[in-house]
Specification:
339 residues; alpha/beta; two-stranded antiparallel ribbon; 14 helices; 55% helix
Length: 339
């Protein structure tokens, strides 16, 4: 049997093929050209157990291409891969050999290879979030400028509907008005593009059974439901609720020894978008649902606001897992028993 790994970079890749004794059978630095990489691996394809690709920012083309060519591809979770710190020499070739060795030993930490169609929708939702954050920056700029110039406050929803004519009506100094109108123009463009993305996302997932189920969880509305469903992908890929909560960054990362905390683990190992979504859901749930509010207040009395919010986010993440896994709607009394 043979094992292959690819140390992927922005413009080239180091490809290695090893045997069951970790001996290097083939190794070469190749350009990021799918046909070249496939041709290099082709003589070994029938004996390859798998090909490991690093989960770098640019892995889509390589993983999709190798899978289309018939290779069994593993996506290495680079955040969880650690090499021995005492090595005197290291480099791209050594990194590739290390990944191949982990594959042979069956200890390779892998990431999720989302199907291309779902991946495109997931990335579209992430792009929407990026545009919303950009719009918020311009809204805050307008709010701050108006307060400085007039002493009055303006609501964010009113800023979203502002026009250049309305700004002219405020009789502000010409340079100030020009700056505000620049922000207003960008906000208008972002409003249009965000609406387009939301329409596409709703058309793709709003009619699914998962959408209806996840919306029964407190604090999760239209926007957060989209994020959660697209970031999860397939709920069946999680072995249990603990794995899902860990993936959503809702569990502690402490390293314990003899009952004492000796440090923290990899806090960033997981999905930052899911983490954000469940924290946002916790904020809404604590405001509008009495049972969730009582749970939050009980935690807050013993710790602080941040810990209490994270605890509520953890509970909502676990509830979301069970709702999607069982296909049954959320039950308030079961989730917040005793509250």
């Amino acid at each position: 049997m043979k094992y292959s790994a690819i140390d992927l970079h922005s413009n080239n890749s180091v490809v290695v093929v090893t045997d069951e004794q970790d001996r290097v059978l083939a190794q070469k630095r190749l350009p990021n050209d799918l046909s070249v990489i496939v041709a290099f691996l082709a003589p070994h394809q029938s004996e390859l157990v798998g090909v490991v690709v690093e989960s770098t920012y640019n892995w889509y083309w390589l993983v999709d291409g190798l899978m289309a060519a018939g290779f069994a591809v593993k996506l290495a979770n680079t955040a969880a891969v650690r090499t021995y710190d005492g090595l005197k020499h290291s480099g791209d070739e050594a990194d590739a050999r290390h990944l191949a060795q982990m594959l042979r030993l069956n200890i390779l930490p892998t990431g999720y290879i989302c199907p291309p169609a779902k991946r495109a929708l997931r990335d579209l939702a992430r792009r929407r979030l990026q545009l919303v954050r950009n719009r918020t920056l311009h809204i805050l700029a307008v709010e701050n400028q108006v307060t400085r110039q007039t002493g009055r406050n303006i609501r964010s929803n009113d800023v979203k509907r502002l026009t250049a004519e309305a700004v002219d009506g405020w009789k502000l100094p010409p340079d100030v008005a020009t700056g505000i109108k620049a922000n207003v123009a960008i906000i208008g463009v972002l409003n249009t593009e965000i609406d387009k993305l939301e329409s596409r996302l709703d058309a793709a997932i709003a009619a699914t059974d998962e959408w209806k189920l996840i919306n029964t969880v407190p604090g999760i509305g239209k926007t957060l439901a989209r994020v959660i469903l697209l970031e999860i992908g397939e709920i069946g890929r999680f072995d249990d609720v603990g794995c899902f909560a860990s993936y959503a960054r809702c569990v502690d990362s402490a390293r314990m020894s003899n009952g004492k905390k000796k440090g923290e683990g990899n806090r960033k190992n997981g999905n930052k978008y899911l983490s954000w979504a469940f924290v946002e859901a916790a904020h809404f749930a604590a405001r509008f649902y009495p049972e969730a509010k009582r749970f939050y207040q009980k935690k807050f009395a013993k710790t602080n606001g941040a810990v209490a919010t994270k605890a509520l986010a953890h509970k909502l993440a676990r509830a979301s897992y069970h709702v999607l896994k069982t296909g049954k709607s959320f039950e308030m009394q079961r989730c917040f028993a005793g509250m």
